[in-house]
Specification:
This protein is mostly beta strands. The protein contains one helix and 16 strands. It folds into two domains: about 35-145, Porin (Beta Barrel); about 155-270, Lipocalin (Beta Barrel), CATH 2.40.128.120. The strands form two sheets. It has an eight-stranded antiparallel β-barrel with strand order 1-2-3-4-5-6-7-8. An eight-stranded antiparallel β-barrel has the order 9-10-11-12-13-14-15-16. The protein starts with a helix and ends with a strand.
Length: about 270
């Protein structure tokens, strides 16, 4: 073996040793109390399907949820959320436990209130965001840190948000479960502005079941609670709507869920200014 080969092998050995030392330095000791990573309030949004429980005909009903969890840093949480199940809004109070694994990245959130729901989670962005998938339900979603309380109308006043969402509009008998006639899918994108006088304005582009309806005006009012949740009542293209929402950290994003009967609709508003 010539000297060049010996030098190459020596260099490679040094590189491997350096990489192995760097990897061993990132041990669980760097995260001695994993549960303490989650010690604030997160807004969350879920989309999924309801597979069983209400009736034999209710399997595979579409659902969306929006709410918030407050984690105490010690493995417990509380909160509240709204679920829109097949076009019906169902409010919930939440409590349960959570576990962050020694890798400081994965874990579980177990909602023990009500029917119970378990999320398998991945923590990203140093705890700024959490991705999850349902363990005992066909659902997935995101948690993001909420704005710091107290909030007020001034938290949103003067901000404009863009959005692109999708949902389902019920057809047939409005009180049927599951809905007779099924649902018509829709997508929409637009912008909404929150004004300092408590009004909202904007423009929406809607595609309802393949029919495109551009430039629909948005008008209405909004209110914000001290816990950084709120509501808005508005018309889109002259059709009445209402949303419940949670304001995320810095007011840069808002999770919303539609409350009228017949719509299965939730989405994210993202600040454009």
């Amino acid at each position: 073996m010539n000297n060049n080969n010996l030098r190459w092998l020596a260099g490679a050995a040094v590189l491997v040793l350096a990489l192995s030392l760097g990897a061993s330095a990132q041990t669980p000791d760097d995260c001695s109390d994993p549960n303490s990573i989650l010690n604030s309030t997160y807004g969350w949004q879920l989309e999924g399907r309801f597979e069983a429980g209400v009736s034999a005909n209710a399997a595979d009903a579409p659902l969306v949820s929006v709410g918030y969890f407050t984690f105490d840093g010690n493995g417990n949480f509380s909160g509240a959320h709204d679920t829109n199940l097949a076009g019906r809004l169902v409010p919930h109070s939440d409590f349960g436990t959570y576990t962050v694994n020694p890798d400081c990245t994965t874990g579980t959130i177990s909602r023990t209130s009500g029917a119970g729901f378990i999320m398998a989670i991945v923590i990203v962005g140093s705890g700024e965001e959490i991705k999850f998938v349902g363990v005992n339900g066909v659902a997935y979603g995101t948690l993001r840190r909420m704005a710091a309380a107290p909030c007020s109308a001034s938290t949103l006043a003067g901000k404009s948000y863009g959005y692109a969402t999708h949902g389902l509009m019920g057809s047939g008998a409005p009180d049927a479960f599951p809905r007779i006639g099924g649902f018509v899918p829709f997508t929409n994108a637009g912008l909404i502005s929150f004004q300092s006088d408590g009004n909202v304005s904007g423009m929406d582009n809607l595609n309802l079941g393949g029919v495109f309806m551009p430039g629909q005006s948005i008008a209405g009012t909004y209110s914000v609670n001290p816990d950084c949740t709120g509501t808005t009542t508005l018309t889109i293209g002259g059709v009445g709507h209402s949303w419940n929402f949670v304001i995320l950290e810095g007011g840069e994003e808002v999770f919303f869920i539609a409350t009228p009967s017949g719509l299965v609709w939730a989405g994210t508003l993202t600040a454009i200014n």
